[in-house]
Amino acid sequence: MKDRYTTLIIDDERLAREEVRRALEGYPEFEIVGEANNAEAAISLIEKEHPDIIFLDIHMPGKSGFDLLEELGTVPEVVFTTAYDQYAVQAFEVNALDYLVKPLRDERFVKTIEKVKVELQKKEEAQKAPLASHQKIFIKDGEKVYFITLAEIRLVESMDNYVRLYFGNQKAMVKRSLNQLEEKLDPNTFFRANRSQIINTEYIKEIQPYFNNKLRIVMTTGETVDLSTRQSVAFKNRNSL
Question: Is the pTM value of this prediction over 0.70?
Answer without folding.
Answer: no
